[in-house]
Amino acid sequence: MHALNRNVALTSLAWGVFFIWIGLSWVANEYYGVSMEAYVALGVGIILIGLNAARAGFGMKLSKFSLFIGLIALIFGGTALAGFKPPLWQTILVLIGLFIIAEAVSSLTKSKSK
């Protein structure tokens, strides 16, 4: 199978698992009154890290961005389950900004050294 087809298949698989996870979390919240925010974050983290692990297993290039978001989601889910609840969306926005800046600086330093 061509690498692009594998990447599309893996990404589609991850999206499918994501929607199932969100749906099951929603059901748990509606029927059992369980707050699922921490579990959703953990699930998203596991899905994104798993996607990148599968890409690595097929010898494909990792997505730094989805790996970064997966790690952040995993950390937020874990801290929420531990009882610490940082401001999720604000922190994610700041971290995404920092990631974009780091990528830009990395690109600039690579092009400077050539």
SSE map:
Elements: H1 3-32, H2 37-57, H3 64-81, H4 88-113
Order of helices and strands: HHHH
Largest sheet: none
- Write down the domain tally: 1
Q: Compute the number of helices.
A: 4
Mean of residue pLDDT? 88
Low-confidence stretches: none
The proportion of residues forming helix, as a percent range, comes to: over 70%
Structural class: mainly alpha
The shape is flat
Head-to-tail CA distance between termini:
35 Å
**CA gyration radius, whole angstroms:** 17 Å
Number of strands: 0
Q: What percentage of amino acids are in beta strands?
A: under 5%
Protein model, in words:
- This protein has one domain (3-85).
- α1 (3-32) runs antiparallel to α2 (37-57), α2 (37-57) packs antiparallel against α3 (64-81) and α3 (64-81) runs antiparallel to α4 (88-113).
- It has 4 helices and no strands.
- The chain starts with a helix and ends with a helix.
- With 114 residues, the chain is mostly helical.
Annotation keywords:
mainly alpha; 83% helix; 114 residues; 4 helices; flat
Compact overview of the structure:
The chain is mainly alpha-helical and 114 residues long.
